[in-house]
Amino acid sequence: MALIDLQNISKVYQMGDDPKNTFKALDDVNLKIEKGEYVAIIGPSGSGKSTLLQILGLLDPPSSGSYKIHNIETTKLSDNELTTIRSQKIGFIFQMFNLLSRISAKENTMLPMIYQRGKVDGARADAILGQLGLDQHTGHTPSQLSGGQQQRVAIARALVNNPEIIFADEPTGNLPQAQAIEIVSELERLHQEEGMTLVIITHSNDLAGRADRVVRIVDCKITEDRRQNNTQPPDLKAEQLHLTTSSPFNPKLWLQTFKMALQTMFRNKVRTFLTMLGIIIGVFSVVSMLAIGEGAKKSVEHELRRLGSSLFRVKSVWPKIKGASTQKRTITYINEGDLAALQKLISTSSKVKNISAIREGKGTLTFEGYSYSSKIAGVSPSHRDMRGNVPSHGRFFDETENKNQARVIVLGQTVYKQLFKDEQNPIGKVVKLNNKNYRVIGLLPPKGTSWGGDVDDVVYIPEQTALKRLFGKQNYGHFFIQAAGDQTLDGAIEEVSQVLRQRHKIGKDMENDFQIKNYGEIKNTVDKISGTMIKLISIVALISLIVGGIGIMNIMLVSVTERTREIGIRKAIGAKSRDILNQFLIESVLIGLCGGAIGVILAYITGTILENIMLWEIEFKPYGIIVAFLFSVFTGVFFGLYPAQKAAKLSPIKALRYE
Ligand code: ADP
Ligand code: MG
Q: What is the pLDDT of residue 175?
């Protein structure tokens, strides 16, 4: 049984896209090669020598005929099985060396071991390179080596998996005569010492003369096949061929692939960054908007906890006119009469506990040459307890001061700091409010911010003083009313509403000219707004992730085209389609991952700035970050898959021919 047995092999190339435009490169070739033979293939240029050797090397399938190696019919095998045979049994040496230009001689030599998923033995690579006289050059990249040295590296690479057969396609065609003899002598030594089968294409009659057997091809047919130099066909037994594929998981291969992906990314820094930009923007917007939304929600909850959920607010609104009624509606603004009536209600009702009337406006405060404009809140004395406005120094005003329209004032922290630059005790001092003297009776403790606003930027005066002396108004802006407890809230709202409807003479089917809102409703509104915001942002994020993904796909397609030759080399020396797929996929996933990470970091930085400088409340939730991250990885996989598959499907020989 011959090691290699070709029967009626033909190869027809299709030229371009037209299936009718074909070219026959091999016609009905029959050839047997025994284990341990040394065969030279000769013939004029274009006669089909390379085509034959590529078929022999399992790099390209024949168009018809049968090719058995170890009695296994190769034309029926899958791509993966062919690759397995190739990386176990066959070493292929090209005229063009075909080394990977970015890695060292040693790394080039080790690649077939890595792809074969067996033991990766650096010492063996060193030993083979040493035998070929390259011990000083193992760390050099191909561009740092001469042509002869590069071809030696290629030979080392072909030998590293200890193949049974070496196919060499004009291995010395690009080298000067002296080097050519040396290289061929190396191959002959392997043939003699280790019984390696050697098949060499050559133009040189000298080199052909050294072989045991010469096969001549002319016009796509074998025209001559003779033994020479008085040799007999060797009688060696072929080793067993294992088609079993070893485990698909190979840490060394993954590590290598990972390293390569990183190198590619770093080599094209600007390009990689621009590709990531879509992902960065998408992830940044999702994470930061979620954090702002969550922060807003939290600050509302804070407020609610501070106020208690039993509070509600009454304010005047223009009533809607119901149905087709032509009746003209008027509005009665909430006023002192209403306040008195509600105070009366409080004294009798078990459901309503407290009320504060509020009239707010702006005013200018001055003290010893300092001047500051702030919010002026005229409120009832009960405001102190209802809203937790307990001064840290001095006191709040009382009912008598309110009735007397006393010119007394309680300062918020911000106002205090603006007016009392030397931080002296303000209690008892007289400040001017809109040019009228007011005596400071209290100073509130700092309360911080809420909703991005400064809660401390306010002063309090009695509501009567505000209405009659400061603003000259008849009505209040709103009432704060406190129910006896959470359970009585609905009842309290009902009772207050009754009183006001009666006082404002609102008929049975008429709309109220006031609006009552409790804090639960305010919270719901905020939740709704932030929900809508999150939806909107998600759409924006999704769009930018898609755009980013298309960017990744585009660049990966370019990358596949750029690296077609590299893919061809890798496949020729034993990379499976899956390995190539992984290589490109890892790269696109890394782009997605890095983009996601940068997006998250940027969002964090922005959040921290907003929190510390703009005093916004920001809340980063882990789920948002994780989801954004997973999304960017998914984008990398999804949009990287097509280019990666395109690369994986390339036939090694077509890829190697690519210019
Ligand atoms: P040799 O190595 O003997 O010089 P080849 O085997 O490379 O010749 O090529 C044999 C013939 O087949 C040539 O005429 C070449 O142009 C043609 N050929 C080789 N590869 C292809 C291909 N992929 N598509 C079309 N024609 C090809
Ligand atoms: Mg050729």
A: 81
Please identify which residue in the block is written with the tokens 């085209």. 561
- Alpha carbons 361 and 48: distance in angstroms, whole number: 97
Mean pLDDT computed over 359-388: 92
Report phi then psi at 364, rounded to 5: -110, 130
Residue range 278-289: average pLDDT? 86
Q: How far is CA 519 from CA 195, 480, 512, 527, in A?
A: 91, 11, 20, 12
Which tokens in the block code for residue 372?
Answer: 């500051």
> Do the Cβ atoms of 569 and 332 come closer than 8 Å?
no
pTM beyond 0.90: the answer is no
Looking at ligand 1, which atom is closest to the CA of residue 220? 10
Pocket test for ligand 1, best of 50, 96, 199 (most atoms within 8 A of CB): 50
Residue 580 CA to residue 560 CA, distance in Å, equals 10
Beta strands 408-411; 449-450: pairing state: unpaired
Q: Is 45 in the pocket of ligand 1 (CB under 6 A)?
A: yes
Query: Tell me, what DSSP letter sits at residue 77?
Result: S
Distance (angstroms) between ligand 1 centre and the Cα of 566 equals 21
> What pLDDT sits at residue 33?
94
Q: Where are the alpha helices (DSSP H) in 6-56?
A: 49-56
Token output for 641: 């898959």
The answer to whether the CB of 50 is under 6 A from ligand 1 is: yes
CA neighbor of 298 nearest in space, from 114, 459, 527: 527
How far apart CA 514 and CA 329 sit, in angstroms, is 13
Which residues are close to ligand 2, an ion, with C-beta < 5 A?
50
Q: From the CA of 45, how far away is ligand 2's center (Å)?
A: 7
Ligand 1 within 6 A of CB of 197: no
How many Å apart are CA 100 and CA 98, to the nearest integer? 7
- Chain-centroid distance of CA 605 in Å reads 18
The residue whose C-alpha atom lies closest to atom 5 belonging to ligand 1 is 48
Contact (CB, 8 A) for 117 and 250: yes
